[in-house]
């Protein structure tokens, strides 16, 4: 019995010793993290004096990068960590740090961010984190209604299409001089994004009128563009909408169509169509862009292998402010991602309607991220699959729909 007691005591001491060893592991020493800035940053710019957060299940640690843009940690408790960092600046500040002439609004918010999740750090290693750039845009395409509906005689009704653009920023933005455009929609695609990383080929481009401060869009407000006809369509189709108070109507000149609504003329057109040619079944790749160049000097191209028919004007991806890819939905296979005209930097995902040919009054609308007082902050992760939902209530300027708030 005494031998058993002695052995038991020795085992208890050993287990206690092992337990203490596990609870007090040796620290990881001289951990180095290098942060790689986007390629268009000046060579003298470093990721200096920026906070880096290490988070484990038991603790959070905050560090600051040195003047060379490196993070050097003398000692770190071994564990599994999530690592995150971000650098926020204005569009004006961003343009002072880069080498190219990337067009970014002065009031935009630009965020550089990098992160890594569930990183096991039990021994010394050198880590490189590549910083991604995110431009938090002020103007967003918030609604695209193109499916049409049935009129009161149960016939196809297709003249009530519209696009809505929302100011998601804290400041008033002027739409003057900016462009609303539609990418080519041939089948098969003439210029799919996967084969053309730097350009979008547009079939229609409209230019907003104004000299710089004529058409303000207040924070949390939007402008509605009637694609064909700015009138109250409910008189002809009860399931349609009222566009009589639209801000713009796509037409050649003021006084035409609805004389009370400003004209949004088509500046570049692949055909002779006088309206914004949203297709009832999709696809409709809609985008807004801004440039100081004469867009009519940009080259136009026929579809590959053709020498006649539609010609598409080539728009640099670098000037795009926002884009929403609305793919056609096929009854048997669903939307085909190979039909995307937008590059990932413009829209990493896509939206689509349930209907395959339209006439269902379905609208593609941007979700609400949060509500601040009476103002809606719309979701924008640059991915229409995540940012947009389908609604059967295509009412313009309405953002308190349950499907948008969920």
Short description:
This protein has four helices and 28 strands.
How does this model look, in words?
The strands form seven sheets. Strands 19-18-17-12-9-25-28 form a seven-stranded mixed β-sheet. Strands 14, 15, 20, 21, 22, 23 and 24 form a seven-stranded antiparallel β-sheet that branches. The protein has helices spanning 2-23, 91-97, 384-387, 402-405, and strands spanning 28-36, 51-55, 60-64, 70-76, 79-90, 109-121, 126-130, 132-136, 139-145, 149-150, 156-157, 162-167, 173-174, 179-183, 199-207, 216-217, 222-226, 248-249, 262-263, 266-269, 284-289, 300-302, 311-316, 320-326, 363-366, 368-372, 375-378, 388-391. It is mostly beta strands and 406 residues long. Mean pLDDT is 90; it is low at 1-9 and 17-21. It has four helices and 28 strands.
Number of strands: 28
Strand count, sense and closure of the main sheet?
7 strands, mixed
**Sequence stretches where pLDDT stays below 50 over 5 or more residues:** 1-9, 17-21
Helix share of residues?
under 10%
Report the average pLDDT across residues: 90
How much β-strand is present in the residues?
35-45%
The total number of structural domains is 2
What coarse outline follows from CA principal-axis ratios? elongated
With helices defined by DSSP (H or I, 4 residues minimum), what is the helix count?
4
Question: How large is the radius of gyration?
Answer: 27 Å
Secondary structure category: mainly beta
């Amino acid at each position: 019995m005494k031998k058993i007691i002695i052995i038991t005591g020795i085992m208890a001491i050993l287990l206690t010793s092992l337990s203490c060893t596990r609870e007090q592991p040796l620290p990881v020493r001289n951990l180095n993290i290098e942060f790689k800035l986007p390629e268009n940053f000046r060579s003298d710019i470093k990721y200096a004096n920026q906070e880096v957060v290490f988070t484990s299940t038991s603790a959070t640690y905050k560090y600051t990068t040195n003047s060379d843009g490196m993070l050097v940690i003398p000692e770190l408790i071994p564990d599994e960590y999530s690592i995150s960092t971000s650098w926020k600046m204005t569009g004006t500040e961003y343009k002072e740090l880069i080498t190219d002439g990337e067009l970014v609004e002065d009031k935009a918010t630009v965020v550089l961010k990098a992160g890594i999740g569930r990183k096991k750090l039990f021994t010394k290693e050198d880590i490189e984190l590549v910083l991604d750039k995110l431009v938090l845009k002020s103007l967003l395409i918030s609604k695209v209604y193109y499916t049409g509906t049935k009129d009161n005689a149960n016939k196809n009704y297709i003249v009530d299409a519209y696009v809505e653009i929302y100011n998601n920023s804290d400041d008033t933005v002027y739409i003057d001089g900016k462009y609303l455009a539609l990418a080519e929609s041939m089948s098969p695609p003439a210029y799919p994004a996967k084969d053309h990383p730097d350009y979008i080929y547009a079939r229609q481009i409209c230019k907003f009128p104004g000299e710089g401060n004529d058409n303000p869009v207040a924070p949390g407000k939007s402008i509605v563009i009637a694609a064909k006809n700015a009138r109250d369509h409910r008189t002809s189709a009860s399931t349609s909408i009222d566009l009589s108070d639209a801000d713009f109507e796509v037409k050649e000149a003021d006084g035409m169509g609805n004389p009370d609504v400003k004209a949004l003329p088509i500046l570049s057109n692949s055909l002779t169509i006088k309206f914004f040619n949203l297709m009832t079944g999709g696809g409709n790749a809609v985008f807004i862009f801004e440039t100081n160049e004469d867009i009519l000097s940009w080259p136009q191209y026929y579809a590959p292998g053709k020498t006649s028919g539609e010609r598409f004007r080539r728009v640099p991806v670098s000037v795009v402010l926002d884009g929403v890819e609305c793919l056609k939905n096929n009854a048997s296979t669903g939307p085909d991602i190979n039909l995307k005209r937008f590059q990932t930097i413009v829209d990493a995902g896509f939206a689509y309607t349930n209907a395959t040919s339209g006439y269902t009054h379905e609208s593609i609308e941007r979700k609400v991220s949060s509500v601040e007082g009476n103002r809606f902050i719309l979701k924008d992760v640059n991915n229409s699959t995540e940012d947009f939902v389908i609604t059967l209530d295509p009412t313009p300027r309405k953002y308190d729909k349950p499907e948008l708030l969920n």
